[in-house]
């Protein structure tokens, strides 16, 4: 049963199953939700079920087995080539879709990161998306709905995937062999993304307490350690982004504590956060958060990491 | 998979089916009636308002075998072929996939030949804005004077991307967004035909989500039907469409106005729990605040608001407690957050920040009130200010060598603030600019350092730390503490050369420069300039303090308030107000 592989997305899965059962599947779907919440898995399951024809997909017939290994000749996945999905990829896809399906009753394509269709490619897709040749099934996945052309959005049936509840992620992590405490922490840090929770290996996580401790000791009067810290962080761009994410989550917790909410993510270092919350004023903390987010944005846009972090740390110290 | 989505199944096939574009269908029908048919049409408008459908209907109307008529018959082979997209003489071209000049050349080849069966050869180019510049230009001549058997119909959502030369050769029709009522009417027609039970309220929600586009509305309706089946209940529509509960909006604004950060954060958690999109919530909150703002600003803005009487009553109640200025500031914060939400990877954090910021916004005091208050203070407090003006100690003339020690200048307070606190002493002195030729005081070492500071501030400040052991025109001997940074850097050749040059100018001779370390604990070294300054300043402070405490007004003030005299500052050349 392919849909059993999908965790915690009951609403969209029910919509799709009902559509399959009643034979009312749309020709184009747009799945929207954060990264790692099960969009891809659901899309594959849906295609598998549509190919199989036995209700929700049997999981044992040759078609289902081919789908399980992503070997099916009638499945056409499209992914960004570099930063964007380019028009040639779309033309290639259109050529494929014009042909008759080889084994399955219809052709299917899954376009990942549909927000990264470049303008030419997105427009080229419009006619196909509106009236695909030979009843093709097109599924677009995106994490950022606003990045998708409105003309594309209007041609698809939109399905929203909510972030997964923490308990579910925790369960999954424990089933994957993490120990209980680590699973709990990773689940609360993942923010509803199972992919992120599974991807974060122990060694990969940032030492949060050390990070905050370091920030606390930064001072404008003694800039040498500040610049040293910036240099160290800037050495690895990916790691720096991760550290900024962690920093944002820590600062957010402080904000929550100051606001009197108890939905704190980093529960394990609660006393430390509380002491920070009393030490920092709220305005200052808000400033810090926006500084951190600005720096993250700058890094994403390929700014010089060293300078960005220099500035960030100086702002945080000041 | 034989199922067609509603938007395709219910694509209008006649002009009368076309919803909300009467101005277009009327014009086209009149043109057909009177036989004045242009050879090129351009249909523009937002997504899903009927451009492509109109193009097809027009094609059918022009080629229908029943004769050219304002409405196609939809039964003759010509009409059915066009509907199915198989007609030989109606070419529907995807302008976004065939963008190149070669595609247009091919089309021009094709234009020459007479239609094989129908009355006209019709080229429908959809998404025409994606054609390349070359392609557009290659089309110009053909478009201006095509053979009589050819008609062009272009459709695009972005007419501004189409060159002006193309625009001027076409008859242009702008398709409007479809009004909410008409969308609902059409949806009602469709659901009745499909045998679906759904309430008007739900249909309105669906249509609102469609935002003036028929295809969007039908896509949403499809989504609703896929979720609910043939019996649609209102609650299901609400939960599926993620329409934000009005209750939640009211709670959020109430918490913001009540400055309750805890509730505000809880509400964000609830929004997240319900699975609403943060951006959507933010948008609805902006709408809600806008409604409040309108109610507040216009008083009776009922005609500006698209709301029921009950909703208006609650809004009015809420609007009462908040000043207009505060509403505007809240909106500013939210609008900024909305912009950020578009490209952030932490939507929840952005919303939380915005709401906390709003909840902790200091209440605004109107400027006129502030001014009035100031005037009052000025009138009442006039006496105090006068007393200060009358009595002014004449400070001892500051020694020229005394460099100003307050450098961190705060920006000058605005008049309003100054007026509000008339008893505050005139603060801070001007930051002295390093003069190139400072006044000489007689102390040759101090003068020399002042000169160096004017020319080379870095060297000057290092010299300040040194003790002048010997200062004559022949020999300059300066001592520094053992291992001082200043000693090392003054000893390097660049600094030495610069110092020698300056010393030559100052002493009109060439003194020998010696920098030497002082033995720790050696008492014989004269104090360096920094120490000297400190001592001088302390002395001056004691003198000033004595003068101040002896003044009767100050003594009385100390007595009344039970305070102590913390600091006295001379008013150096500053006119008291």
TrEMBL record, chain A:
Q: Which domain of life is it from?
A: Bacteria
Q: Name one GO cellular component term.
A: DNA polymerase III complex
Q: Which GO terms describe its molecular function?
A: 3'-5' exonuclease activity; DNA binding; DNA-directed DNA polymerase activity
- EC identifiers of the protein: 2.7.7.7
Q: Which Gene3D superfamilies match?
A: 1.20.272.10, P-loop containing nucleotide triphosphate hydrolases
Q: Does the keyword Iron apply?
A: no
Q: Which residues form the DNA polymerase III delta subunit C-terminal domain?
A: 207-316
Q: Does the keyword Nucleotidyltransferase apply?
A: yes
Q: Quick one: a GO biological-process term for this protein?
A: DNA-templated DNA replication
- Reactions catalysed according to its record: DNA(n) + a 2'-deoxyribonucleoside 5'-triphosphate = DNA(n+1) + diphosphate
Keywords from UniProt, A to Z, are: DNA replication, DNA-directed DNA polymerase, Nucleotidyltransferase, Transferase
| Protein name per its UniProtKB record | DNA polymerase III subunit delta'
Q: Which organism is it from?
A: Geobacter hydrogenophilus
What phylogenetic lineage does the species belong to? Bacteria, Pseudomonadati, Thermodesulfobacteriota, Desulfuromonadia, Geobacterales
Gene that encodes it: holB
Automatic annotation (TrEMBL), chain B:
Enzyme class comes to: transferase
Q: Which residues cross the membrane?
A: none
What are the EC numbers?
A: 2.7.7.7
Give one Pfam hit by family name: DNA_pol3_gamma3
- Establish whether keyword Zinc is in the entry: yes
Q: Which InterPro entries match?
A: AAA+_ATPase, ClpA/B, DNA_pol3_clamp-load_cplx_C, DNA_pol_III_gamma-3, DNA_pol_III_sug/sutau_N, DNA_Rep/Repair_Clamp_Loader, HLD_clamp_pol_III_gamma_tau, P-loop_NTPase
Name its GO BP terms in alphabetical order. Answer: DNA-templated DNA replication
Catalytic activities = DNA(n) + a 2'-deoxyribonucleoside 5'-triphosphate = DNA(n+1) + diphosphate
Q: Which NCBIfam families match?
A: dnaX_nterm, PRK05563.1, PRK14965.1
Self-association state and partner proteins as the record states: DNA polymerase III contains a core (composed of alpha, epsilon and theta chains) that associates with a tau subunit. This core dimerizes to form the POLIII' complex. PolIII' associates with the gamma complex (composed of gamma, delta, delta', psi and chi chains) and with the beta chain to form the complete DNA polymerase III complex.
Q: What's its job?
A: DNA polymerase III is a complex, multichain enzyme responsible for most of the replicative synthesis in bacteria. This DNA polymerase also exhibits 3' to 5' exonuclease activity.
Output this protein's name. Answer: DNA polymerase III subunit gamma/tau
Q: Which organism is it from?
A: Geobacter hydrogenophilus
Q: Which gene encodes it?
A: dnaX
């Amino acid at each position: 049963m392919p849909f059993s592989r999908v965790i915690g997305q009951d609403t969209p899965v029910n919509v799709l199953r009902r559509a399959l059962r009643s034979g009312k599947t749309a020709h184009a779907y747009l799945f929207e939700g954060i990264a790692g919440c099960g969009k891809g898995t659901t899309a594959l399951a849906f295609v598998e079920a549509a190919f199989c024809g036995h209700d929700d997909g049997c999981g044992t017939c040759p078609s289902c087995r081919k789908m399980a290994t992503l070997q099916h000749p009638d499945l056409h996945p499209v992914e960004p080539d570099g930063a964007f999905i380019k028009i040639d990829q779309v033309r290639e896809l259109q050529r494929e879709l014009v042909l008759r399906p080889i084994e399955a009753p219809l052709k299917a394509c899954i376009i990942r990161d549909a927000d990264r269709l470049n303008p030419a490619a997105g427009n080229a897709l419009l006619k196909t998306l509106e009236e695909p040749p030979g009843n093709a099934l097109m599924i677009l996945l995106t994490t950022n709905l606003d990045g998708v052309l409105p003309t594309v959005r209007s041609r698809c049936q939109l399905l929203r995937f909510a972030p997964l509840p923490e308990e579910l992620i925790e369960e999954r992590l424990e089933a994957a062999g993490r120990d209980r405490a680590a699973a709990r922490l990773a689940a609360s840090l993942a923010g509803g993304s199972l992919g992120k929770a599974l991807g974060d290996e122990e060694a990969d996580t940032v030492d949060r307490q050390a990070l905050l401790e370091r920030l606390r000791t930064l001072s404008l009067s003694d800039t040498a350690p500040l610049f040293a810290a910036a240099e160290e962080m800037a050495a690895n761009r990916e790691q720096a982004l991760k550290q900024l994410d962690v920093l944002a989550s820590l600062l957010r917790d402080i904000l929550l504590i100051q606001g009197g909410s108890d939905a704190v993510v980093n529960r394990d270092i609660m006393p430390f956060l509380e002491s920070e919350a009393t030490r920092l004023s709220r305005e200052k903390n808000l400033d810090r958060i926006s500084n951190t987010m600005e720096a993250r944005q700058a890094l994403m846009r390929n700014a010089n990491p060293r300078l960005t972090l220099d500035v960030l740390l100086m702002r945080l110290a000041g | 998979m034989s199922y067609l989505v509603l938007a395709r199944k219910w694509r209008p096939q006649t002009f009368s089916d076309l919803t909300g574009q009467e101005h277009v269908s009327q014009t086209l029908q009149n043109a057909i009636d009177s036989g004045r048919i242009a050879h090129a049409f351009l249909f523009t408008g937002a997504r899903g308002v009927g451009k492509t459908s109109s193009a097809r209907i027009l094609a059918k109307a022009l080629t229908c075998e029943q004769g050219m008529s304002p409405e196609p018959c939809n039964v003759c082979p010509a009409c059915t072929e066009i509907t199915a997209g198989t007609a030989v003489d109606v070419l529907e071209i995807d302008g976004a996939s065939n963008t190149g000049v070669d595609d247009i050349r091919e089309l021009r080849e094709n234009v020459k030949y007479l239609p094989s069966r129908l009355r006209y050869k019709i080229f429908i180019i959809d998404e025409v804005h994606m054609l390349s510049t070359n392609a557009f230009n290659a089309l110009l001549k053909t478009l201006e004077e095509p053979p009589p058997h050819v008609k062009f119909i272009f459709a695009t959502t972005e007419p501004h991307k189409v060159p002006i030369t193309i625009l001027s050769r076409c008859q242009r029709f702008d398709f409007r967004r479809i009004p909410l009522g008409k969308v609902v009417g059409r949806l009602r027609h469709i659901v009745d035909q499909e045998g679906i039970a759904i309430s008007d309220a739900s249909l309105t929600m669906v249509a609102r989500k469609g935002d003036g586009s028929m295809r969007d509305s039908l896509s949403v309706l499809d989504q609703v039907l896929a979720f609910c089946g043939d019996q649609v209940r209102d609650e299901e529509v609400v939960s599926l469409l993620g329409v934000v509960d009005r209750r939640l909006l009211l709670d959020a604004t109430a918490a913001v106005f009540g400055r309750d950060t805890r509730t505000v954060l809880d509400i964000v958690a609830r929004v997240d729990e319900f699975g609403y999109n943060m951006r959507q919530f933010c948008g609805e909150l902006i709408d809600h605040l806008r409604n409040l703002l309108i109610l507040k600003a216009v008083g009776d803005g009922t005609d500006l608001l698209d709301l029921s009487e009950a909703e208006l009553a609650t809004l009015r109640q809420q609007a009462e407690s908040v000043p207009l200025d505060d509403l505007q500031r809240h909106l500013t914060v939210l609008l900024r957050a909305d912009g950020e939400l578009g490209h952030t990877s932490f939507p929840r954090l952005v919303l939380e920040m915005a709401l906390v910021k709003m909840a902790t916004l200091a209440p605004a005091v109107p400027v006129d009130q502030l001014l009035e208050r100031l005037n009052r203070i000025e009138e009442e407090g006039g006496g105090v200010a006068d007393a200060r003006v009358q009595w002014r100690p004449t400070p001892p003339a500051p020694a020229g060598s005394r460099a100003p020690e307050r450098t961190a200048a705060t920006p000058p307070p605005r008049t309003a603030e100054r007026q509000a606190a008339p008893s505050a002493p005139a603060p801070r002195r001007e930051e002295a600019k390093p003069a190139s030729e400072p006044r000489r005081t007689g102390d040759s070492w101090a003068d020399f350092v002042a000169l160096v500071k004017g020319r080379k501030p870095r060297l000057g400040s290092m010299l300040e730390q040194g003790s002048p052991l010997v200062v004559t025109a022949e020999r300059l001997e300066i001592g520094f503490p053992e291992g001082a940074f200043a000693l090392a850097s003054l000893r390097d050749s660049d600094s030495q050369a610069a110092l020698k040059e300056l010393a030559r100018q100052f002493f009109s001779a060439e003194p020998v420069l010696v920098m030497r370390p002082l033995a720790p604990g050696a008492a014989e070294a004269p104090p360096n300039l920094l120490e000297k300054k400190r001592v001088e300043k302390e002395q001056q402070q004691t003198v000033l303090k004595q003068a101040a405490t002896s003044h009767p007004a100050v003594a009385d003030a100390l007595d009344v308030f039970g305070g102590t005299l913390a600091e006295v500052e001379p008013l150096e050349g500053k006119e008291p107000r």
